């Protein structure tokens, strides 16, 4: 059966239009879902992108989540249980704390298994997470409406590339009202 070039072109055009329409509808659906989602903010500093969100908000409690994502492959983050000055000066803990009207209502947890690495010149093993992103969660409690600050700390390293400059007590502002938390100076 011979199909004219016009019919083939017409079929391709209809298929393209249908796919474009489907993509547009899917994108609209994502926008609708995003408007009802948890408050979120992010920043990138010293080789790591940090995305913060507040979920399961049922006043006066919620969960603060921070996803730490190294910008380059092959980089890991240090354990939340690492001492503040590292082990023999090596590494800095992945940390998430709150001040102001938000209080920690439990212990910081990471959704990654800790492994240890050996660093030349360091006698003790150093606890790290596997290369790639690490998600941490901290239960929080509200002590009245007002301002709060989330304080973040981390350092990322690679066996081949070395380490980035550690970040310590990086502040992110949170405003909490009767409507819930929002990030920034609103």
Describe the structure in brief.
The chain is of the alpha+beta class and 186 residues long. 17% of the residues lie in helices and 45% in strands.
Q: Label the overall shape.
A: elongated
> What profile does the largest beta sheet have?
6 strands, antiparallel
Beta-strand proportion: over 45%
How many β-strands, per DSSP?
Answer: 15
**What is the percent of helical residues?**
10-25%
| Euclidean distance between termini CA atoms | 66 Å
What is the structural class?
alpha+beta
Rg on CA atoms, Å:
23 Å
Q: Helix and strand string, N-terminal first?
A: HEEEEEEEEEEEEEEE
Overview of the structural elements:
The chain is α+β, with helices and mostly antiparallel strands and 186 residues long. It is 17% helix and 45% strand. Strands 1, 2, 3, 6, 7 and 10 form a 6-stranded antiparallel beta sheet that branches. The longest helix is centred in the N-terminal third of the chain and has 31 residues, at 5-35. 24% of the residues are buried.
Structural features:
6-stranded antiparallel sheet, 186 residues, alpha+beta, 1 helix, elongated, 15 strands, disordered N terminus
Write the layout of secondary structure elements.
Blueprint: H1 5-35, E1 40-45, E2 48-58, E3 61-70, E4 76-77, E5 95-100, E6 102-104, E7 109-110, E8 115-117, E9 126-128, E10 134-142, E11 146-154, E12 156-158, E13 162-163, E14 167-177, E15 180-183
Antiparallel strand pairs: 1-2, 2-3, 3-10, 4-12, 5-11, 6-10, 7-10, 8-9, 11-14, 12-13, 14-15
């Amino acid at each position: 059966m011979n199909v004219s070039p016009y019919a083939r072109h017409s079929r391709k055009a209809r298929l393209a239009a249908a796919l474009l329409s489907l993509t547009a509808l899917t994108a609209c659906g994502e926008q609708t879902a995003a408007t009802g989602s948890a408050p979120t903010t992010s920043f990138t500093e010293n080789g790591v992108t940090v995305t913060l969100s507040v979920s399961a908000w049922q006043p006066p409690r919620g969960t603060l989540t921070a996803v730490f994502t190294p910008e380059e492959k092959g980089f890991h983050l240090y354990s939340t249980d690492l001492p503040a000055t590292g082990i023999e000066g090596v590494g800095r803990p992945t940390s998430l704390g709150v001040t102001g009207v938000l209080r920690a209502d439990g212990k910081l947890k990471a959704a990654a298994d800790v492994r240890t690495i050996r660093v030349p010149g360091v006698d003790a093993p150093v606890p790290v997470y596997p290369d790639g992103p690490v998600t941490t969660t901290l239960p929080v409690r509200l002590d009245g409406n007002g301002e709060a600050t989330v304080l973040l700390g981390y350092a990322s390293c690679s066996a081949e590339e070395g380490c980035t400059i550690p970040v310590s007590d990086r502040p992110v502002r949170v405003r909490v009202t009767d409507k819930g938390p929002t990030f920034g100076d609103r």
